[in-house]
Amino acid sequence: TTKFTSASDIPMGFVEKNVKLRGRLHHITEKGLEVEHIPISVPFITPIQRKWQSKGLLLVRLAGVELDPSGMAWLQQELKPKQTIWFQLLGRDDLALECLVLVNKGRFLSVCLNEEILRQGLGRTARIEGLHHDSRLYWKLHKRLLRAELKALKKSKGIWREESYSERIRDLVSGSKFVQTLKQFVNWLRGSIER
């Protein structure tokens, strides 16, 4: 029932047990998602507790994901301010939480943003900070993230998109010295005809 307003407020036991917390999204920044923690509500007690709860936002980072600038734009498009999200604690430092972020899509379906960003090709898989490198959970999550990234790679999505053959030829031709000289000649010719 306690409202957490900073990463250091969250007990280490919660992080070690990978507890899921609920929050309300406020901002998407370069550093991560700024989320207001929503504590579990208990009838009669919660309204009284709200009067003494301090205000503050948690900084939630997407664990195991190195976000591309296009991924940031996608997040800003997909997530709405004041939207409720779930975040599973994987690690923390004094300033931020490393989490798996889940968003409800419909009544029974939720999407893991960490995986979805990689599946869309909007980021790369990175080391999951906060989890021990030799733990089973680390390798289970890392394998899930790598699978999502591989799907984007196979479908040539996002950062994995390759230029088509015609796009490469067009870029080569338009950048060649011969074509540049030809354009200058045509412009000179037009200018001299108009005079």
From TrEMBL:
UniProtKB keywords: Acetylation, Membrane, Transmembrane, Transmembrane helix
InterPro entries: C3orf33-like (IPR042421), SNase_OB-fold_sf (IPR035437)
Keyword Membrane: yes
Principal place of residence: membrane
A single Gene Ontology CC term: extracellular space
Membrane association type: Single-pass membrane protein
Subcellular localization, as worded in the UniProt entry: Membrane
Protein name: CC033 protein
Organism this protein belongs to: Pedionomus torquatus (Plains-wanderer)
Top-level taxonomy: Eukaryota, Metazoa, Chordata, Craniata, Vertebrata
